[in-house]
Design goal:
Blueprint lengths: L2 E6 L3 H16 L3 E2 L8 E6 L4 H21 L5 E6 L6 H7 L5 E3 L17 E5 L1 E2 L10 H4 L4 E2 L2 H13 L4 E5 L15 H7 L24 H10 L6 E5 L8 H9 L6 E3 L7 H6 L6 H14 L4 E8 L6 H14 L3 E6 L7 H5 L6 H16 L12
Parallel strand pairs: 1-2, 1-3, 3-4, 4-5, 6-9, 9-10, 11-12, 12-13
Antiparallel strand pairs: 7-8
Helix pairs in contact: 11-13
The structure holds iron/sulfur cluster.
C-alpha cells in the first residue's frame, strides 16, 4: 500500500487542512507513514506568516532531498501546499528545487473527511480566507477572499462527530464572527493598500467590517445555537473572532449558552491608535476596551486572549507604552506576541520600512510577555524569532 507523510507548519487552520489532506490520502488507499523517511509522498503544509517559518520549510525540503541523495535512493514525491503557495509556482520551484508538485490550499476544500488524531475534540473549519487586508498580513493573498462554508455541511460534520463520541468542537476561521454575513464589497481594501498615495485615513471606513449589519440574529449566532442542540456536544470554542462583527447578539448568546467556552481569543495587535491605523485594523483602543467591557458586563467569567505585534514600522516608545498600558487594563490571560517581520507582497512591506532594530523588538517582546504570559507556564507561547 502506498504511504504518505504530512509535515505541518504554522497555525491551527493549517493543522485542520492537514487533517483533510490526510483524509484525501486515506480515501485513495494510502496509509500514514511513521516518518517522512518511510513515505512514498511527503506533503509540506507551509506557513508564510514570518520569514523564519518559510526558512524552516525551505530547510526541510533541502534536508529531505539531501537525505535521499546521500543514500543513493529515489526521493519520494514532495508536494508543497499552504500559505507559501502565494509566491507563485516559478518562484517556488526556483526557491526549493526539491519539490515536485504544488497544491493550492483552497483546492483542499471543506468536503474531504478529516483524519483526526484527537478522539474527543475536533477542529471544524467554518470559513476560509480573509477580506480584511491588515497591512502586515499575508493571509488575504495566500488564502484568498473569505468564504463561508455551508451551514448544512458544518452541522452534518458535527453530528457525525458527536455520534462517534466527540464532545468538544472548535470552529475555525480567520474571522469566525463574520461567518455567513452579506458582503459590502470585495477588493476595496486590497485596492487601497496597493498604492501608498491612496493610503489615507479618510479613505478607510471607521469600522473594519466588510459586511452589512445583519438584520435579526447574526448567522454565526444561529450557527452556535444549532450546534448547541446536537446531542453529545458539550463544549464549543471558536477562533479567531475579531473586534469587528462581534455583535451584541453574540455576547448575549455566550452569556446564556453554557456550552460556549468562556475563553475568547480577541486579537488587538497594538494598543496604539496610530499603529492600529498603520496596520489598517479599522478600530481604536477605545473601541476594543469598550467591547471588552460590554462582554464582561454580560459574561463576568469571560477570559481573554490576544495577538500582538511589536516593532511594527515606526513604532515609537510612546506607541509601545500604549500597548503596555492596554495589556494592564485588559488583563489578557495569554497573548501570542510576535516581533514584526515584513512579508513580501503585503501592504506594509510595500509602504513602510522595517526600521525598528531587532534588539528593540526583542526588548518590547520580553516586556509584554512578562506582563501577560508570566503565569502561563503550560500555554506560554514561544518567542517568535
Ligand atoms: S483579519 Fe487581518 S490579521 Fe487576520 S487574517 Fe485577516 S488580514 Fe490577516
Amino acid at each position: 500500500m502506498p504511504s504518505y507523510f504530512i509535515h505541518t507548519f504554522g497555525c491551527q487552520s493549517n493543522k485542520s487542512d492537514s487533517e483533510r489532506i490526510a483524509g484525501d490520502y486515506a480515501a485513495r488507499g494510502y496509509t500514514e507513514a511513521r516518518s517522512w523517511k518511510l513515505a512514498d509522498e511527503i506533503v509540506i503544509n507551509t506557513c508564510a506568516i514570518r520569514e523564519s517559518a518559510e526558512q524552516r520549510a525551505r530547510h526541510l525540503v533541502f534536508i529531505i532531498a539531501k537525505f535521499f541523495a546521500d543514500q543513493g535512493k529515489q526521493k519520494p514525491k514532495i508536494i508543497l501546499t499552504g500559505c507559501m503557495v502565494h509566491h507563485g509556482y516559478d518562484q517556488l520551484y526556483k526557491m526549493m528545487p526539491g519539490i515536485d508538485e504544488i497544491l493550492p490550499i483552497n483546492e483542499v476544500g471543506f468536503n474531504q473527511s478529516a483524519v483526526r488524531k484527537e478522539k474527543t475534540h475536533a477542529w471544524i473549519p467554518i470559513s476560509a480566507g480573509c477580506n480584511s487586508f491588515c497591512t502586515y498580513c499575508i493571509v488575504p493573498y495566500s488564502r484568498g477572499r473569505e468564504q463561508s462554508r455551508a451551514q448544512d455541511e458544518i452541522l452534518t460534520e458535527v453530528r457525525d462527530l458527536a455520534q462517534k463520541g466527540y464532545s468538544e468542537v472548535t470552529l475555525l476561521g480567520q474571522n469566525v464572527n463574520s461567518w455567513g454575513l452579506e458582503k459590502v464589497g470585495i477588493g476595496f481594501r486590497k485596492l487601497l493598500m496597493s498604492h501608498k498615495e491612496t493610503f489615507s485615513r479618510e479613505n478607510i471606513p471607521d469600522n473594519q467590517s466588510q459586511y452589512l449589519k445583519p438584520k435579526g440574529t447574526p448567522p454565526f449566532v444561529r450557527l452556535l445555537q444549532e450546534i448547541s442542540k446536537i446531542d453529545g456536544i458539550e463544549k464549543i470554542r471558536f477562533m479567531t473572532s475579531n473586534p469587528w462583527d462581534f455583535h451584541e447578539e453574540l455576547i448575549d448568546e455566550i452569556a446564556k449558552n453554557k456550552k460556549i467556552d468562556r475563553f475568547l481569543h480577541l486579537p488587538i495587535q497594538s494598543g496604539s491608535n496610530s499603529v492600529l491605523y498603520r496596520m489598517n485594523r479599522g478600530y481604536t483602543r477605545e473601541d476594543y476596551l469598550n467591547l471588552i467591557e460590554r462582554i464582561r458586563a454580560k459574561v463576568p467569567d469571560a477570559v481573554f486572549g490576544s495577538d500582538i505585534i511589536v516593532g511594527f514600522p515606526d513604532e515609537t516608545d510612546a506607541e509601545f507604552e500604549d500597548t503596555v498600558d492596554l495589556a494592564k487594563k485588559v488583563g489578557w490571560k495569554v497573548a501570542f506576541v510576535a516581533m514584526y517581520s515584513p512579508r513580501p507582497g503585503t501592504a506594509s512591506w510595500r509602504i513602510y520600512t522595517d526600521n525598528i532594530p531587532h534588539t528593540v523588538k526583542k526588548k518590547r517582546w520580553e516586556i509584554l510577555d512578562q506582563i501577560i504570559n508570566k503565569d502561563n507556564l503550560v500555554i506560554r507561547p514561544k518567542v517568535v524569532k
